[in-house]
Write a structure and sequence with these properties.
The complex is a heterodimer of chains A (366) and B (511). With 366 residues, chain A is mainly alpha-helical. Chain A has helices at 20-44, 49-62, 64-89, 97-114, 123-149, 153-173, 208-224, 227-237, 239-245, 249-276, 287-297, 302-325, 331-352, and strands at residues 8-14, 353-359. Chain A has 13 helices and two strands, in the order βαααααααααααααβ. Chain B has helices at residues 44-51, 74-80, 97-102, 109-123, 138-150, 168-183, 195-201, 224-232, 292-300, 325-330, 351-359, 372-385, 402-414, 432-447, 459-465, 488-495, 507-510, and strands at 6-15, 18-28, 33-38, 59-64, 67-68, 82-85, 156-160, 187-192, 204-209, 212-217, 250-259, 269-277, 281-285, 313-315, 318-319, 333-336, 365-366, 369-370, 420-424, 451-455, 468-473, 476-477, 481-482. The chains are: A mainly alpha (366), B alpha/beta (511).
């Protein structure tokens, strides 16, 4: 007598080796899956899926004007994500890039706000530097409490982002409000020399994109070749091995957070000194949070991040298009971003694990 | 011969391309103590997992008590009357003995307490059912594990290297228990690679090599040398003689160190003193959990002493206790930790990148960037000289077997040509052949003037290697004993705390 009782239950079993092909395929598959799911949602909402696909995924490439906007959005996402990815590989989870981005924008704005009459080619580079410093300072608060008191950096950096947003509100409603601005919460318009020079005439793409690409290459060298980058990765993968080899953990936390803060601060500075031209509330549009998705979608690898930043920027611009032409709700882009991250996490889980169907109960003796 | 209790025919099991067991036949007679003998990696553990239902064989048949058997889980194995005690205990430290047992055995607490006492009396497994597990010694914990198995009235009990965690005195007691169990009708499968033990207790032995059975013998009829030859397939190399050395300069000195860490589960160390000189090997004996890992971290620099405790640890004559691990390495210190994966190496990284972990000081960097060519050359040299079996320097460390990883780490640390080498558990999980190569290597280095500190649980190993032995028990270190003038039983008494430090003459001074 042989009986088979119980159902087959799925179990996740760790793979001995994660294949390279699967690792590379995971992000595109996640992107495709998220696209299908979201299109399904749009159909359920009664929208025309063809129009949405056209507006979201094709239109951004169809004219130079809209593609240049994609490049403009890519800049900050790419920059922040490169900085964050370095920290993430060291398992230092800086979730507060949004706050560091805001502080970068505020620091950079200090020059044109306080010296609106100043002229000279030194102004915009000085603003970018100051913005970098602002982001780093904001991140150093998190680093200090993490190293000194072992306060969780995820919570501290996330909550400091809310503080940064309120600080921005205070400045724009108080001391930095444009006296001639009809009481709108925004600063004065910046003078010409406070603007990063335009790279491609007729578009809003500016020199900071070159800077971002250069820094991406630097990030690649840093993580793949440098000994400091290696130490950070050891700390992330095996903290006890790092301590065995004598790599200082506190130093790694400081460095990770400062790199992330610098990158986010620089991005914030480039945003006010670039497309915005003044300090306003709308600088905080969630780049700092979207960059977390970008970093993970890019597999925390400097080259992968370039691709994923471009995809995310297309999604932003395409989502705006679709809002107008296919009357998608404003939340649609956020839902897409969220489902993309979810799909990616599921895909990565399957790269590392495989599903096995096991008998829940066992066969009894025949 | 009576019908066997358990009979395996043609059992095979492979993981990917690795064949762990091939065509294994095994018969376990009722009321017998049956040894499974083999080197690490010979397939002993896999075979036991198949018998206990943790894994399922790819081929072959199992007959249990005259009936064909196919097990899907350990729970089913237990229902059939097969119990197993693993090498690493699975007890909750914050619960009492009876509470731990209640988790797997149904019944009222009072009844269970009574049954634990009865079993303890019948089989020499005395343990207080109401004691908390964290307060028990390793030997007592093992007894709890055995009692937990016996509660389900097994006909077969599998013990995976049960003596590796015990001091010599407790081993005798365990053997007494096993004999009583056998006489009470339980068959025992006894996994080990310690030949003398098997000769003293087992009725039958099955020897495995490379996943295949290489012999079924009566171990009492063969000497240890024969068994070793069947196990490793060739003759054992002779131990390396240690040349007498005139004592060199002090390379490591610890003076009256007291240390209590913030971790409430860590063993506090008190009044630790030791000296390691150039050209000598000092061994620290003792059962794990008596402060070994705490002491190792203090010496390696993974735990840094506060300023208030300066002038306690000296390396190459400098106060090193307040230096971090990297600074101590710069003084000429190298260290092989007891845990390999995640401490000695980063499992996800290639061997080349793992060489850099400590060997970066050998000019494997240029301008802060990793010099891949030099790092690969270093790694290849290490793989070649230390017989690391791996597809190549780009294999990830996690894919190597424990023994090969240990050879890699020891090789990497020796290639740093340190003045002071500290090796914790040099041959844990390393097969007999490689272990003897490692010991010979350590003795050669000692003869060349290196100062070496070894922590080991294996007394035989310490006796083969060391000039002096100190015993760590309950956070206290005995005075040094000259190995040539000491018998293992003396060390054993220190290991279980039967000696108080005041009874000890300073034998090192007499030597």
């Amino acid at each position: 007598m042989s009986t088979l009782s119980g159902a087959f239950l799925p179990t996740l079993v760790r793979r001995e080796h994660a294949s390279l092909a699967a690792t590379l395929l995971a992000p595109p598959i996640a992107l495709a899956a998220a696209t299908v799911v979201n299109l399904g949602l749009y159909v359920l909402m009664g929208r025309d899926p063809v129009a949405v696909v056209y507006a979201m995924l094709l239109e951004p490439f169809l004219s130079w004007a809209s593609f240049s906007e994609v490049l403009l959005k890519t800049g900050p996402l790419l920059l922040i994500a490169q900085g964050l990815a370095i920290g993430f590989r060291a398992k230092v989870f800086n979730i507060g890039a949004e706050g560091q981005f805001i502080l970068g924008a505020i620091f950079a704005s200090a020059i044109p706000v306080w010296f609106p009459q100043a002229t000279g080619q030194w102004i915009w580079p000085a603003m970018l530097l100051l913005g970098t410093l602002g982001g780093a300072l904001w991140a150093s608060l998190t680093a200090f409490w993490r190293v000194r008191l072992n306060a969780n950096e995820i919570l501290v950096s996330l909550m400091l982002s809310l503080v940064a947003a309120q600080f921005l509100n205070y400045l724009l409603l108080g001391p930095w409000k444009d006296p001639d601005g009809f009481n709108f919460p925004q600063s004065v318009m910046f003078q010409y020399d406070a603007m990063v020079p335009i790279l491609i005439s007729g578009t809003r793409v500016n020199v900071s994109l070159l800077l971002t690409i250069a820094l991406s290459i630097a990030a690649w060298i840093f993580m793949q070749r440098s000994f400091i980058g290696y130490k950070l990765q050891v700390g992330g993968l095996a903290p006890r091995a790092a301590s065995y080899a004598g790599f200082n953990e506190g130093w790694a936390i400081w460095l990770s957070l400062l790199i992330g803060g610098c990158a986010a601060g620089l991005a914030g500075a480039a945003e006010v000194a670039g497309p915005l031209g003044q300090l306003q509330r709308s600088i905080s549009t969630g780049y700092g949070y979207a960059a977390i998705i970008v970093a993970y979608l890019g597999g925390l690898h400097p080259i992968g991040i370039v691709v994923s930043a471009l995809c995310m920027a297309v999604l932003y611009i395409g989502g705006d298009n679709a809002m107008v032409s296919a009357s998608l709700p404003i939340a649609a882009v956020r839902v897409f971003q969220g489902s993309l991250l979810l799909a990616y996490l599921v895909a990565v889980a399957f790269v590392r694990y495989r599903l096995e169907w096991r008998r829940a109960a066992c066969r009894s003796q025949p | 011969m009576t019908a066997p209790l358990l009979s395996l025919r043609g059992i095979s099991k492979s993981y990917g391309q690795i064949t762990a067991n091939q065509d294994v036949d095994l018969d376990v007679a009722p009321q017998s103590i049956h040894a499974i003998l083999g080197e690490n990696g010979a397939g002993k553990s896999t075979l036991m997992k198949l018998v206990y239902g943790v894994e399922q064989p790819d081929g072959g048949s199992v007959v249990w008590d005259g009936q064909p058997l196919s097990l899907a889980s350990p729970a089913e194995a237990r229902r059939q009357g097969i119990g197993m005690v693993f090498q690493h205990f699975s007890l909750f430290e914050t619960l009492t003995v009876v509470e731990n047992i209640q988790l797997v055995v149904p019944g009222r607490k009072a009844d269970l307490t009574q049954r634990i006492r009865t079993l303890g009396r019948d089989f020499g497994l005395e343990v207080d059912p109401l004691a908390h597990v964290h307060a028990l010694s390793v030997g007592e914990r093992q007894r709890v594990e055995i009692i937990r198995c016996l509660m389900t009235n097994p006909k077969l009990l599998i013990l995976d290297e049960p003596t590796s965690v015990l001091p010599p005195q407790s081993v005798d007691k365990l053997f007494d228990t096993l004999r009583r169990l056998r006489d009470g009708g339980v068959s025992i499968l006894f996994i080990s690679h310690k030949l003398e033990e098997i000769r003293s207790i087992c009725d039958r032995a099955t020897i495995l090599r490379g996943g295949r059975v290489t012999g079924h013998v009566d171990p009492r009829e063969h000497d240890a040398h024969d068994l070793a030859r069947m196990m490793i397939g060739r003759d054992m190399p002779e131990p390396m003689p240690a040349l007498p050395q005139s004592s060199g300069e002090k390379r490591l000195e610890i003076i009256g160190l007291d240390y209590r860490s913030d971790d409430p589960f860590a063993m506090p160390l008190s009044d630790i003193s030791l000296t390691v000189r150039a050209g000598e090997i000092l061994g620290i004996a003792g059962i794990s959990g008596n402060g070994q890992s705490e002491l190792a971290a203090l010496i390696s620099g993974e735990t840094i002493l506060p300023r208030a405790l300066r002038d306690r640890i000296f390396m190459m004559g400098q106060d090193a206790g307040t230096l971090d691990a990297a600074a101590r390495r710069q003084l000429g210190f190298a260290f092989v930790p007891e845990d390999r994966l995640g401490r000695g190496v980063v499992p996800e990284m290639s061997l080349v990148l793992n060489s850099l972990l400590t060997a970066h000081s050998l000019k494997l960097l240029s301008h802060g960037l990793i010099d891949k060519a030099k790092a690969t050359a270093f790694t290849n040299a290490c793989i070649g000289q230390y017989d690391v079996r791996t597809p190549g320097p780009d294999a990830v460390a996690g894919s190597l077997s424990g023994g090969n990883l240990q050879k890699f780490i020891i090789g990497r640390e020796i290639m740093l040509s340190p003045k002071l080498l500290f090796v914790a558990q040099p041959t844990w999980g390393v097969d007999v052949g490689a272990a003897s190569a490692i010991r010979r290597r350590l003795i050669t280095l000692r003869n060349e003037g290196m100062a070496i500190l070894v922590i080991s649980e294996e007394l035989e190993e310490l006796f083969e290697l060391c000039d002096f032995i100190q015993v760590l028990h309950h956070g206290r270190l005995s005075l040094p004993l000259v190995t040539r003038h000491t018998r293992p039983e003396e060390i054993g008494r220190y290991m279980i705390g039967a000696h108080t430090p005041s009874q000890t003459a300073d034998q090192k001074a007499l030597a």
